[in-house]
Amino acid sequence: MPAQTIGGRLDVQPYKPEGGFEPTGVVLLLAVMLATAVVTGFAAHLIGRFIYLILLFPVGIGFAVGFAGSKVTTKSKVRSPLIGGLLGFVCGVAAMLCMHYFDYRSYLDEMQKGEIARIIKMFDAEFESGIAEVAAEDQRVLRL
After folding, report:
1. Where is 6: in which H helix or E strand?
2. For the chain, first and last CA: distance in Å?
3. CB atoms within 10 A of CB 68
4. Is residue 139 helix, strand or coil?
5. d(C-alpha 99, C-alpha 95), whole Å
6. Confidence of residue 55 (pLDDT cuts 50, 70, 90)
7. pLDDT, tens digit, for every residue of 14-45?
C-alpha cells in the first residue's frame, strides 16, 4: 500500500525487508562471517585453556559473528532475513567447530610430549614384544 499524504502529513509505512539479495553479496557476507567465526573460535580456544565459561562462549561467539554480519549486510545488499539467519547459523556452528578443533589439536600436541608420550611409547614397546611371542598367522590379526 503506497504512502498517502493527508493534510500535508506523510503517513509512513514500517520498514519490511523485501527479501532480495545479490549472489556476490551473499558470498561477501559469508566470507566475512566465516572469517569472524574462525577468529572467535580460536580466541575462545585460547581463553578456554585458562577458564571455560560454558554459556558465555557460545553467546559471545554468536554476538561477534552477528555483529560482523550486521556491519557487512548493507555493503553486501542482502535483504533477506532468511538468508541472513541461515548464514548466521552456519557461521555460528563453524565457530564452535573451530574452537573444538583447536582444542583437539592442542590435546594432540600435549600427548606428544612429557610423561604421557613416554607411557604411550612404553605401551607400544610392550605390545610389539607381546606380538613377537604369538604365531605368525595370528600376528596379522592382532595388528589390524
Report:
1. strand 5-6
2. 72
3. 21
4. helix
5. 6
6. confident
7. 766 666 777 888 888 899 999 999 999 999 99
CA atoms of 88 and 37, how far apart (whole Å): 10
Distance CA 41, CA 98 (A): 5
Q: Which secondary-structure segment (H or E) carries 134? A: none
CA distance 98 to 34: 10
Query: What pLDDT does residue 64 have?
Result: 93
pLDDT tier at 95 (50, 70, 90 boundaries)? very high
Cβ pair 39, 96 in contact under 8 A: no
Nearest in space to 98 (alpha carbons), one of 45, 30, 28, 29: 45
C-alpha cell at 61: 561467539
Q: Which residues pair with 48 in a beta bridge?
A: none
What is the rounded CA–CA span in Å between residue 89 and residue 72? 16
Q: Which of 90, 37, 43, 22 is nearest to 67 (CA)?
A: 37
- Across-strand partners of 5? 10
Instruction: Give the separation between CA 59 and CA 91, rounded to whole angstroms.
Output: 13
